[in-house]
Request: fold
Amino acid sequence: MLNKVTATFSLLLIAIVFFALVLINNQLLSPLRLDLTQNQVYSLSTGSKEVLAEIDEPINLYFFFSDKASKNMTSLRNYANRVESLLREYQTMANGKLSLQVIDPQPFSEQEDQANQYGLTGATIGAAGEAIYLGVAATNSIGEHKVIAFFDPKQESFLEYEISKLIHQLSDTKAIKVTLLTDLNIAGGQNPMTGQMEPAWTFFTQLQQLNEVELVGSDIVTLPTDTDLLVLVHPQHLSDELLFAIDQYAMQGGKVLAFVDPHNESDQLAMMAGSMGPNSSSLDKLLSAWGVDFDGEHVLLDAMAGLDIRTQSGGVTRHFGFVGLGAEQLDREDITTSNLEVINGASFGTFTKKADSQARWLPLMKSTVNADLIDSASYAMTRDPDELARKYQSKNRQYTLAGRLTGKANSAYDQGLDAEQSTVFVDSTKNLNVIVVGDTDILADRFWVQQANFFGQTIFTPFANNGDFVTNAVENLSGSDALISVRSRGTFVRPFIKVDELTVLAEKKFREQELILQQQLDETEAQLMQLQSQQDDGTALVISPEQQQTIDNFMQKKIEIRKALREVRHQLDKDIEQLGNWIKFINIAVAPLILVMLLALLAAMLRTRSNASQREHVKEAK
Reply:
């Protein structure tokens, strides 16, 4: 009787403790998270937490997902759950500054109209042709709104960055001030060679549409004080005062996007002056101090990535100095280049990280392995692409053509230039943020965009992603340090590595058998074709019984081999499916069963120990 009462009391106590722990977890421990995944895909990075900490006014998030319409789309629904869980993590970490609403925009509903008003994309991928929504709209207290039109599962590694960028743009609404320093005629005007008026370069026009841009030349000695991002295009003949100003701007946390070039081919003034030498630019003094060397004396030749151009005779030839970088040559893990497919440029220079560099160097663009370097003076003198091809010799190595410098760096100067400046001199930084590109021609229209006049309106038709790269780089660098620090993250879906390995072994085993049977089948068919050809050319008008028997045997063997071949392929699929079923059975049934057995064993041990203790107490009482 006592044992029954004790067991009942124990179960009741366990239930009370369980509900108490659940209550404590929900009320007191909800802000705490323990993410044991390899890339912490369920938790926010430090940069995202800093972005949330910078929110001054409440922000509303509206997550639109067509839950009902996507009923049978398992992979899409899993990704939607991943997005929603991350949004809820943002809401939790924002301490009440974020409000999240989950909306299912069903067809012809007010919610669907709301999604369309925000500008979300309805992808027509439903079974009945209805639009599927998977996006988010966000509004701040002053009525501004931003959207992520559709969460692309292929861009899952940048999911956190996109959400953090959305929140940052609504919490910091002031216009981005971009200072563009160059002596090139990128703003348009009269062409000194033809005398005709030319429009502004397209990248400059796009930059003005998205930001507040101030265009300055190399004759200045200080930078505008309200500069959020400094863009340098073909910097030449910069005074020491201006170089010092750029250095200190970077040391004090300013962001820099620099385009340097061993030979600029788009400078009309230099061409009109008849200069046959290289028209180069660099920031050697600054870049070397910050941790990277730029080779401004050699131009890249790439046999594999060379672009085809039309010759004066009307033919087409490949120009090894005019380079088209494909997706394989672009970093797929950096936000500036992850979604780009083609970058075109000419006479690229190369970068090398210094051995004593403290900064982190991340290459963004690389050549193919079929690359060579040629002296920039020799390149400038060589007008014939075929002659360049003859000078080319593959080094069987890749060269870095653009990259990102972040982290620690020292100033290029030991002290200020004069007594007044020395009081605010900064000799180092831990927050360097610089993107450098070894070419300026990638900004010229002829390498990436065509302009056409359509009833008085200029239409831009890009054939490369040069403009997208500039936009991505400016957008990324003009954000806060916290936002820039949010890099690509791991993916939610993890492969079954062991299953893949076993699948490969199974395929190898059956592929060998399949190859043997296929060889036998080919030999049999060849012999049959030989016999048939003898009949066709009249050499065997009368078939003997032995020949007929041979043909019948070949036909029967062919049927048997085909049957065996089908059986091998069927067995391969069956074994792979069986392997998957076993894995599912172990994960779904065996593992929980083992856990239950362990808990039951633990409970039995505790119960035995409790009973033994009770018996001891009874003995002592007697």
